[in-house]
Amino acid sequence: MQDEKHVDGPTLDRRRVLQAFGAGTALVGLGTGTAAADDHCYPEELVSGDDVHPVFGFSALEADVEPPVEPDHEIEAMIRPVEGREIPEFFYEPTGLSVEPGDTVRFTLATPHHTVTAYHPAFGQVQRVPDGVPPFSSPVLGGGAYWLYTFETEGVYDFHCGPHESFGHAGRIVAGSATGPGAEPLPEPEDEGEGESGGEDGAEDESEGEGEELRPPVFAAGTVLGDPALDPERIVDRGRVSWDEIADESKELPF
Fold first, then answer.
1. How many percent of the chain have pLDDT more than 70?
2. Which residues fall within 8 angstroms of residue 23, CB to CB, at 6 or more apart?
3. Predicted TM-score (pTM) of this structure
4. N or C: which end of the chain has fewer CB within 10 A?
5. Residues 121/207, Cβ–Cβ less than 8 Å
């Protein structure tokens, strides 16, 4: 990591990030090595029965576990060192993917300690999945594990890795057409000093939870998802968008 120096504009140091996300969450898995799933004390209940659950998906702690359905696509959760930077890149490959409604995607943990978590009001976040889609999330899984999820409802799905969201570990799937809340431009992040809700004159966001404030994708996740390479229509046209297509400036860390 760069030496902490003042730069033009607002600065964010490591302490502020840890305060925002919790030290145990934000920095889990910063190493670039892999870990076998059986190195961790996962209870057997984490492996979902015989179905791909609409909330919990299907978790497999090892690559050779037989899936309940054959996946139609695969996305890998990756960590890659960056020359001259202490913190590596955390990303999904591909980062953008076009699927058909009803397709099942296998998320393979090529590196350890990631999740696949929807941007959903139930998690205190702005809705970036189609209406009616439940707040789905995988557990944190080790290297060599995989997780399945079936994207039944047409529209745009934005998701992130819970431990590494602030580092830009986010992705987008378009099922069928680029419709729904996730197809809209990302809301601007709040500036410090605004009203508690971040709206005009402190007006609260009443879209969900009786005026509960919902946060947008934060730090590098917001700039990654806002990059033109991940425009939902472009994802549909191209079929898949690699992490390497996203501009370097969108991957920069603000701390």
1. 72
2. none
3. 0.78
4. N
5. yes
